[in-house]
Recover the amino acids of this structure.
């Protein structure tokens, strides 16, 4: 996603995600701090609306919409 957004690895980002999958939501709640740290994200939160810039990704069998933006 960084490459698609023309972002460098050292750029801090905000991550917004949307999913209806309960297992993925639980996983994100449990591992969110690690994900935020590993991705250099200043924010990692559920989105109330899916951004037009969001990409659809699969986590296992679940679909998750993810959008990033530079801070």
């Amino acid at each position: 996603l960084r490459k698609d957004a023309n972002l460098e690895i050292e750029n801090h980002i905000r991550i917004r995600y949307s999913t209806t999958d309960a297992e993925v939501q639980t996983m994100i709640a449990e591992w969110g701090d690690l994900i935020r740290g590993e991705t250099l994200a200043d924010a990692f939160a559920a989105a109330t609306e899916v951004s037009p810039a969001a990409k659809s990704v699969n986590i296992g069998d679940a679909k998750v919409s993810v959008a990033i933006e530079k801070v």
User: Anything to note?
Assistant: The chain has a mean pLDDT of 94.
